[in-house]
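chain below, 210 aa
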Amino acid sequence: MGWDEARSQLLGLWVLVMLAVLLLEACQAHPIPDSSPLLQFGGQVRQQFLYTDDAQETEAHLEIRGDGTVVGTARQSPESLLELKALKPGVIQILGVKTSRFLCQGPDGTLYGSLRFDPEACSFREELLEDGYNIYHSETLGLPLRLAPNNSPSRDSAPWGPARFLPLPGLLPAPPEPQGIQAPEPPDVGSSDPLSMVGPSQSRSPSYTS
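prediction:
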């Protein structure tokens, strides 16, 4: 076998190896980030605000407070930042990021925040609507998720239809930046000491005493 023939065979083998590597990389599936709002499977976690204007006298964001009460607030706040985690396809848990309380629902439909996750009380079925809003039902009880009117704990006069919630990106307004150190004044180029290295001038030498 001549040198040219051996080199040709080696070149052909190298081309086959490179083609196999490229084919293998093309066949590998790239994972979808868990935070994608389009993915409704276990392990997905996303931070959002739940905003509703459905049958409410004022626009409101669902808020889970430190004492366990669940109310609606007109403005976004740290207590209204929620973590939605998929438990299984179409079913989620809702956690208050600041208060570490799970959103739960009692047999009468009352919403409350619990430090302990109860699968029967704190699991909600999420239904995505075409207009971008979502509706939620208790997976166990089948009751719709809805804020009580006027933030009242009583639900006697509350409508029982499902409320629409619009998930909003979970980004709180950035706090004001602290004031930095003021920039030094520009040097006085007309002075005999423009960089202030000698210090303030004195009318007489400090070695003399009066």
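The beta strands are 45-52, 60-64, 70-73, 82-88, 91-96, 102-105, 111-114, 124-128, 134-138, 166-169. The domain at 45-149+161-168 is CATH 2.80.10.50 (Trefoil (Acidic Fibroblast Growth Factor, subunit A)).
thats it, cya
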